[in-house]
Write a structure and sequence with these properties.
The chain is of the alpha/beta class. The chain is 31% helix and 26% strand. The strands form 4 sheets. The protein has a 5-stranded mixed beta barrel. Strands 12-14-16-17 form a 4-stranded mixed beta sheet, with helices on one face. A two-stranded antiparallel ribbon has the order 5-11. Helix 3 crosses helix 6 and helix 6 crosses helix 7. The mean pLDDT is 94.
Length: 360
């Protein structure tokens, strides 16, 4: 266990959950499902069962470092890695892995987003332990794949072969970013594709070798800090390092290019909670399909399949609505048809251009 580490990525702004998710207080810090815990708290608790508390690191935007400490009070400041600018997932993984390498060159690391939902925690823990164990023995990069339940166009897909490592881990053949519906149907029917969950497991030596090979410039930037990590000078070094980094994802920068990538097919009740529709799918609904979080003062007439998320104590009366999302937060009310919720990003852009950042 002492060689097992977790890196939780918590730097996103969650704009698809506007108006509840704001740039100053994004979705990972919100209790979106009404469970009594925010998404980052749930993710942290999940990893506490797998790795020692002192081996959990949170990478986040500098602006959110105080929110992380507020919501995870037991975490030490040295475990919160602040990013001065958003540069996608490759730089944040390079930073965390170089830092961990200086603490423990025998480390095996799981990297995961802070804002996903996992319904079957026991299955998840078993799969992560199995992956950490395999990663500690083999020079491989492991990703977790979810068995697709439908031809969803919102997810990336990973094709795997019959070739295996340790029986459970299949050699990866191709990565495909969000396909169109026809392609998604073909993928699901073939049985050779899994959803890309964005959860990775590797030994620190394997991932640093991959950075050296596929993103050498980025690797050099962070390697320069090897004698600075875990000292008082780390923060000022990182401020400088990030501005030299290109904006690139770990999938595109390394996983799609490396020849030692394996995938573990999993089924632990996963959702990336990417949209209001995904929250609606998971929420408790009444017999007419209406989901209300928190459900204290909402009256509905002739309304069905609606998702309502408004402040506690607010009286809401709906009449004649079917398939709508009604969300109120931060002096903003949004009423949007479920079919059109992919437009939320565009709505946010329009609000910004009309009213500046006051409502963003």
């Amino acid at each position: 266990m002492k060689n097992y580490y977790a890196v939780i990525m918590a730097g996103g702004i969650g704009s698809r959950f506007w108006p509840i998710s704001r740039s100053a207080h994004p979705k990972q810090f919100i209790d979106i499902l009404g469970t009594g815990k925010t998404l980052i708290q749930t993710t942290y608790d999940r990893f506490l069962k797998i790795v020692p508390a002192e081996n959990i690191f949170i990478v986040t935007n500098d602006n959110y470092a105080s929110l992380v400490k507020e919501q995870l009070p037991n975490i030490d400041s040295s475990q919160v890695l602040g990013e001065p600018v958003m540069r996608n997932t490759a730089p944040c993984i390079a930073y965390a892995c170089h830092k961990i390498n200086m603490l423990n060159p025998d480390a095996s690391i799981v990297v995961a987003p802070s804002d996903h939902l996992i319904l079957n925690s026991e299955e998840f823990e078993k799969d992560i332990r199995n992956s950490l164990e395999a990663a500690s023995r083999n020079n491989c990069l492991i990703t977790l794949g979810i068995k697709p339940s439908r031809p969803d166009t919102g997810y990336g897909y990973i094709q795997f072969t019959e070739e295996t490592l340790d029986n459970d881990f299949h050699k990866v053949k191709t990565f495909t970013e969000k396909p169109n519906i026809e392609l998604a149907k073909t993928f699901v029917q073939s049985g050779e594709f899994l959803w890309n969950a964005g959860i990775f497991v590797w030994s620190v030596s394997s991932i640093l070798k991959a950075f050296e090979q596929y993103l050498p410039e980025m690797n050099d930037i962070f390697k320069e800090g090897d004698n600075i990590y875990n000292t008082a000078k780390e923060n000022s070094f990182i401020q400088n390092a990030y501005y030299q980094c290109t904006n690139i994802s770990i999938d595109y920068g390394i996983m799609e290019k490396a020849d030692n990538v394996y995938i573990l097919p999993t089924d632990f009740g996963w959702s990336d909670l990417g949209t209001w529709a995904s929250v609606y799918e998971l929420a408790e609904k009444d017999y007419l399909g209406n989901a209300v979080i928190p459900s204290d003062k909402v009256i509905m007439y002739d309304s069905s399949n609606c998702m309502v998320n408004v402040p506690k104590g607010k009286l809401v009366v709906l009449q004649g609505l079917d398939d709508y999302i009604i969300v109120e937060s931060n002096n903003t009310l949004m009423i949007c048809h479920k079919d059109k919720e992919q437009n939320v990003k565009q709505i946010v852009a329009d609000v910004r251009s009309k009213f500046g950042n006051e409502f963003i």
